[in-house]
Amino acid sequence: GMESTLEQLLTDDSPAVRRQACESVGRAQLAVNPEKLVPLLGDERYVAWAARQALQNLRVDQWRPLVMQAESAKVFHHGAALMLAIDPSKPTAQAVLDETQVRLAGFLDDNDFIDLLRVMQLALHRGGLEAKDCPELGPQLAREFPARTDLNPAGGRFMNRELIRLLVHLQQVSIAPRLVDYAQSDEPMED
To answer: Taking 60 as the threshold, does the pLDDT of residue 91 lie above it?
Structure first.
């Protein structure tokens, strides 16, 4: 029926068609297979936005595992943000944070690293979590500071600013001397 036709269009080669299919699913509040929608969170901006709208018609538990296990960093970041928007509970925030820690240990390009820091900030904020709720996260992040980057100097400063915000929230006093050094250096630090 209608669902299966739209599910096929969700994988169309054209982003415009994928977007329209998502919008139709969202408007008609159809229960399509979340395995077809979740990957579109990593699609181009307008498709991803329409996929977010469509996913909001499904119960979070129907698509949460697909987000948590997503290979694509982008799918995880967008999906985690959506989960936290719909269900800002402590358990959800904790589950998201746990997964961000796993991902932090892997290889991330600079933009994915910044997005991951953003998801951490969101989880801490939405779930009302503090340093004591995630004792390993602070030290793990402290090891990343100051972040070395391939981005331009402004990008490097931006990345480190996001990192500092998290470290302050997580009360990582061990970074104080490095923070002073970093503040005194004009350029992002090199090796």
So the answer is: yes
The phi and psi torsions of 85 (rounded to 5 degrees) equal -70, -40
What does pTM read for this prediction?
A: 0.89
- Give the separation between CA 185 and CA 131, rounded to whole angstroms: 28
In angstroms, rounded to a whole number, what is the distance separating the alpha carbons of residues 162 and 166? 7
Give the Cβ contact number of residue 88 at 10 Å.
Answer: 15
| Burial grade of 190 (CB within 10 A; 0-12, 13-18, 19 or more) | exposed
What phi-psi label fits residue 188: left (phi over 0), alpha (psi between -120 and 50 degrees) or beta? Answer: beta
| Residues contacting 84, CB < 8 A, separation 6+ | 92, 93, 96, 122, 123, 126, 127
Distance CA 62, CA 19 (A): 21
Q: For residue 72, what are its two tokens?
A: 């694509």
Residue of 1, 18, 55, 13 lying closest to 33 (CA atoms): 55
CA distance 153 to 159: 10
Average pLDDT of the residues in 11-26? 96
